[in-house]
Amino acid sequence: MKLFFSIVWASLVHASYVVQRGAVCHVHASNDSSDDAPAILSAFDRCGQGGTVVLNDELYHIESVMNTTGLRDVLVDLSGTMLWGTNLTYWRANGLPLGYQNMTTAWMFGGDRVVFRGHGVGTFDGNGQLWYDLTNGVSNLPGRPISLMITNTTNSLFSGLRFVQSQFWTMAIKNSEDVLLEGIYVNSTSNSSAPARNTDGVDTFFSNRITFRNWTVTGGDDNISMKANSTNILIQDAVFHGGLGVAIGSIGQYPGVFERIENVTAERVTCLGTRYAGYIKTWTGVQQGYPPNGGGGGLGYAKNITFRDFVLQDLTDSAAHITQCTSFSGAARGCDTSLFQISDVTWASTVGNVASGYLAKLQCSGAAPCTGIRFGEFDSIATSGTSRIISCSNVLDPVGFNCTT
Length: 405
What we know:
The protein has a 32-stranded mixed sheet that branches. A two-stranded antiparallel sheet has the order 8-9. The chain is mainly beta. The radius of gyration is 22 Å and the shape is elongated. The protein has three helices and 34 strands. The model is unreliable at 1-14 (pLDDT under 50).
């Protein structure tokens, strides 16, 4: 009784065990590299409603998928490292489906009033190099899992977490609202000739009022991306090393399906060697192939998008970018066919340089031209040589700039 009902399950699977004192569950890792996931799941079962789950400064081997959803009023405290296993055949066959495209995740996580903190040291290690070598640049290999899927989550905080060598996208957020993710570190870098492709920092779907603050992202694709039905998204004080920058999309992939992205602000962002600062990408208006690697013909809109107070260093393509040309690999372009409407997009108060001659490339669809495209205080951006090219197609009444080609 004086130990607050201390219960020790030392006989749990594979020598991992949980020590529970009241509503606090401490998970202790195995000493033989066996699967620690069952003990972690046990801790969430016991302390996931009004309690605390503590993952100590230990190495946890994750050899099986985890589903910890329906949590409520719980604190998750990670000081150690979670290392995902190398049995790629298992992960490809057993990933938990997102319910979007054919994507899966290694850990499905969600709840209301959840705090998940890592103190700047708690680490997710996806053993990603094995995946980069396996895919060798192939996009969206079936069964390649997202490290962490945050789903059906409200009024919650994720802070001080580190993600290294993610298997695929680092995080996805779906069907969630009022979530703050701050002080997040992401680094997915290949050490072989195979690229770390599709290692997005985070992607949002069907989510509202999501805030990303103080992120550092190094990866091989979108640093932060908003996809279908993402609304009221705020990105602040981020630093990106490589990757593509802040992405709106891709979207419009499913024929006849109406989707939107609305009220997105990215501010005080530093882009170091990224391809773009902020960009928008939609699929063409004609379906070619099938998702996830093909598609097109989707409907909807992206509006009220703001990229401001960016600092750029050696961007490889352009600061501002719109393309409505995304299509199945190798298919005819169809850049003027999309009916997906892009409007009220602002790039403002940006300094630095682009390593090419292009300040902007704005390829809007002839079937639904872009409106309300604005540049403000873009004069301080240097481009290669003397050229400052702003390439435009189907941009109606631009504000603050003149198209040069």
